Automatic annotation (TrEMBL):
Species: Clostridium oceanicum
SUPFAM superfamilies: Nucleotide-diphospho-sugar transferases, TPR-like
Protein name according to UniProt: Glycosyltransferase
PANTHER family: GLYCOSYLTRANSFERASE, POLY-BETA-1,6-N-ACETYL-D-GLUCOSAMINE SYNTHASE
InterPro entries xref list: Glyco_trans_2-like, Nucleotide-diphossugar_trans, TPR-like_helical_dom_sf
Matches recorded under Pfam families: Glycos_transf_2 (PF00535)
Chain ranges of the Glycosyltransferase 2-like domain: 5-148
């Protein structure tokens, strides 16, 4: 069985740190906590779980702090978590199995990262991250903000999931201030930094500047295709919000330049035609959406709703408008099979039951 060091960087995480460490303590052989300037009870909580608590002066560089935490590890592999992450009981069992079967030929293990859980226990958004790495490989972190670890060699994709459950709201301008400092230093942004700087601008409602970054990214040959797809999604979201549907449609189709069609975009193309009351074409795109298969080991950002129940409920709406109640009912039933506690679908169910249809749910 391999041995594992858990390495974490923390600051003012008294609300979540104990919850995280309770999830992980039985999975690892060593816990390393690096505090970057807490003023609450974070350090006191950390010391309940480990005597390996270190201090690192915050220099507005997440990669530097994470590399320092990795430098303190002594076990064969390093697991990293953030304080507001949790590991469900199911994933803890999967993790223990993984730990038992993993051998030293593995250089990195990816795990799913789930953001937001809906009423059915399904993540609103998920993607993969390199989460467990071989210590002797000395893999390094890069990026002052939205940092990432650069790995190579034998990488395996596991079925373990880490779930992000935020309680505390971070200082809202923290990341944006880091980017502003980089600009003041005449730092030349790489493609990843262009993308995440655009995201920070977008989140701060600085839309014109954000769009400049996203369109710049789309013209960069060095940009990762998944970042380009995500930028397209942001542009679709923005142009939809300001009621410029043709601009939104343009970026839906542009996303097809970078990979096979994604459910998120096929669905939104369907919405364009639905809003134009062109139901036949809308139905075509919604039906296409239902046939797409979400990549099992994909590295992109995937919203499960688009890959499961959402296109079916829109097909229900379209067929109902056409007077094809049997087909509409069929698709609402299919949507319920994915999301049985969804209030919209349950309202639809009552509507069709009043028409004489018998639901399985």
């Amino acid at each position: 069985m391999i041995t594992i060091s858990l390495c974490m960087i923390v600051k003012d995480e008294e609300l979540t740190l104990e919850r995280c460490l309770n999830c992980a303590k039985d999975l690892v052989d060593e816990i390393i906590i690096v505090d970057t300037g807490s003023k609450d009870k974070t350090v006191e909580i950390a010391k309940k779980f480990t005597d390996k608590v270190y201090y690192f002066e915050w220099i507005q560089d997440f990669a530097a702090a994470r590399n320092y935490s990795f430098s303190k590890a002594t076990k064969e592999y390093i697991l990293w978590l953030d304080a507001d992450d949790i590991i469900s009981e199911e994933s803890q069992k999967k993790f223990k199995t993984l730990k038992n079967i993993l051998n030293n030929s593995t250089d990195s293990v990816t795990m799913l990262y789930n953001l937001g859980i809906n009423e059915d226990g399904v993540p609103a958004l998920s993607y993969r991250r390199n989460r467990l790495v071989k210590r002797l490989n000395n893999f390094r972190w890069y990026g002052r903000v939205h940092d990432y670890i650069l790995v190579g060699g034998n990488i395996i994709n596991s079925d373990v999931a880490i779930t992000h459950k935020k309680i505390k709201v971070n200082e809202p301008n923290r990341n944006l201030n880091i980017y502003k400092k980089m600009i003041e230093e005449n730092h030349e942004f790489n493609a990843r930094e262009v993308f995440y700087y655009g995201n920070e601008l977008y989140d701060h409602k600085m839309f014109d500047k954000a769009i400049t970054q996203y369109t710049k990214l789309l013209d960069m040959d060095s940009a990762w295709y998944e970042d380009k797809i995500s930028a397209c999604n942001k542009l679709v979201e923005y142009y939809t919000s300001i009621k410029k549907p043709l601009e939104a449609l343009k970026y839906c189709f542009r996303s097809f330049l970078y990979d096979k069609p994604r459910a998120e975009f096929a669905f939104k193309i369907g919405n364009y035609f639905h809003d134009k009351n062109n139901l036949e074409i809308a139905i075509f795109w919604y039906q296409l959406t239902t046939t797409l298969k979400k990549p099992v080991n994909g590295w992109g950002f995937y919203n499960d709703a688009y890959w499961t129940w959402l296109p079916h409920v829109q097909l229900c709406v379209c067929y109902d408008k056409q007077g094809k109640k049997d087909l509409a009912f069929k698709h609402n039933e299919k949507a319920l099979s994915y999301s049985p506690n969804n209030k919209i679908l349950l309202q639809n169910k009552k509507y069709y039951e009043n028409l004489g249809f018998k639901s399985k749910f």
